[in-house]
User: Fold this.
Amino acid sequence: MTVTAGTAPTTPASGGGLRSWLTTVDHKRIGIMYLAVSLFFFLVGGLMALVIRLQLETASGTVVSPDRYDQIFTMHGTTMVFLFVVPVMAAFGNYIVPLQIGARDMAFPKLNAASLWLLVFGGLAMYSSFLFGNGPDAGWTSYPPLSEQSPGHGIDFWIVGLHILSLSSILGAINFIVTIHNMRAPGMRLTRMPLFTWCIDFYSIMILGALPVLSGALTMLLLDRNYGTHFFAASNGNVLLYQHLFWFFGHPEVYVVALPGFGMISEIIPVFSRKPVFGYKALVYSVAAIAFLGFLVWGHHMFAVNFAAPVAIWFMISSLAIAVPTGVKIFNWIGTMWMGRIRYEPPMLFAVGFILLFMIGGLSGIFLAVFPIDLQVTDSYFVVAHFHYVMGSIPVFAVMAGLHYWYPKMTGRMLDRALAIKSFWVLFVGFNLTFFPMHAAGLSGMPRRISTYTDHPGWETMNQLSTLGSFVLSIGVLMIAYNCLRSLRYGRVAGNDPWRANTLEWYTTSPPPAHNFDSVPPIRSERPLYDLRTDADVLAVSGD
Amino acid sequence: MTRPSRRRLRFLVAPVLGTLASLLAAAPALADTATLNDPNSPNAGAIDDIYRAVLGVTITIFVLVGGWLVYSAIRFRERPGAEYPDPPQVRGSTRLEIGWTIVPILILVGLCAFTFYKLPTVQDVPKNAYQVKVVAQQYGWTFTYPDGKHPVEPNTLVVPLSTPIHLSLTSKDVIHDFWVEQLGQKTDVLPDRVTHTWFRADRIGTYTGQCAEFCGPGHSGMTITVKVLSKTDFASYLEDKAK
Assistant:
């Protein structure tokens, strides 16, 4: 377990030039390209969300036809999940994990490049269906028999695109696991590993457990659609089998997204509170518990299919159980802030905002786990509100916390602090204005995935608030985008460690050289840089 | 105004204003809608009871934990100007951590117990219920009474007051979902099996709902109307109008 484990790639000269980017195997460049690709798809998915919001602004919206509306919400969900939130975690994992463990690169640099390009081509394959007639139109969940009866080839493109994306994620996950378990710097025992790296480890393990099941289900769907099999056919197949397989993947997928977000928050809060993280071991155990329990709860997406009571009760209890380790994380984060000396740089502001919003998403999850309530609110706008407070607060607040935190490392420049703080507040107000009224819309009976609600003009007010909020949210996103682009050139020079942080990525230059480190400091805890600073203080004192 | 107090003000004012603004903007819409629509059936009523219990518990948790978070975030912020050393490097507290693992477990056990207590009212179809067969297809509903007759209006079920109605549901094509919120829980309508739900309307009137499982481009228009008549009115409806 040495730093130069003989896996150092032949990195091209770190000069510019498109060709050097396209052919790179450097984890940092791959990470940045992952980030660019996933943020591009975030904008695409966001534009589709705005179309949805405009359509629903009035009870009988005519912005798009019902057919087109179905394609848009299908691709909004698919894009956000598969082309944004999952790969954006891979972006940070790629860039940060080798640096945090003091490695020179990922274990398999070429495989890493392959994961990136599979992501790009998977996205293109999926979107190319619009060039050949229709987009996929059965929702991001694509339940049969609807998805088997959908005409055209939209869903076939969707399946093939998802296959490519799963492959990308699976290869990436293998790479992360091998890297994390074999390439840590001397002295970095598992108990001294940064929490973000821990979370990427469990993220990868969950991907390996969940995505092959999705691939299996999608293959059966493809065969049913095109080659006359009937795995999910109503006549002599089983329409619910698909839902079991899909959600056996789908629920762990939520934690695939959540865990790296938790990891970012667990890095940021101690740094800006000037304290060690409260209960390091409890945080690692809670991540492990979430990763395990995440595979036992899929049925809570299917309560309405009339489970026998014991089955429903099992899924209720297992789902509620996840609230316990999640609560531990939130309590430990606040415990870290308690008695700290909190400096409100933008990453910390985003982190605190995230905890608050995620708490709303977590608590509304209790309504959905308690299955009698779920039977009223599932498939309504209440559940749309819930999963945006979870799956939306992670990328919009946790990942933005991470972006503001690591941007100086990636670019060597600081983001504009004042603009970043303003954009936080715009996002915070916009996010709540968009998604909070959806709880109310769902409770008053509005189902999801409808393009008009002519019989219920009373739902208009809530929808108009959401529509207004979605534009506020968009302004916040544009402010961050502008800040990121402008600061590339005009940002203050960051230096190695602008935050006085704890982990190894801040030991090297910003941006780091192709080989990452000239040397790695001794590692005696999960905060090697804190140890270095206190050593320096001790030396200074004893030198007097 | 000195610099520290202006900073303090900004940190207090910004979150409070931001939260108030979003809440105020949403308030008119939220006033009536923090709860489920007025239940008109024992199962819907039992779900409403569980909902209110969970709402109370979760709002309490949110106020307590959110309050602890916001208090910590403001109370322990760095005040500029003063030079002070790093805060105490506390690494955790096993006792506290065990505590905030066990307390949530106890809360959840309590919620489960209350849910189990209410569960029979939600799920169990009363004996001697009036049997109605429901067939869904893109994009409408067919209801059939025990004598083979159907209600006259399309996508409309006419039922007698205070009578348990047992619905046996199946689909001719894709998955649909029967949902009339005031009359109880959603039930998926599947093409390869029969599912069951029930309700007992205790007030005369017209109740609306719609398909809650995305079923294609006509999904938005797949509405359900349930008309509740007095028992005598229903008897004459069945005699004269149903066909």
In short: The radius of gyration of chain B is 27 Å. The mean pLDDT of chain B is 90. Residues 176 and 215 of chain B are 6 Å apart (CA to CA).
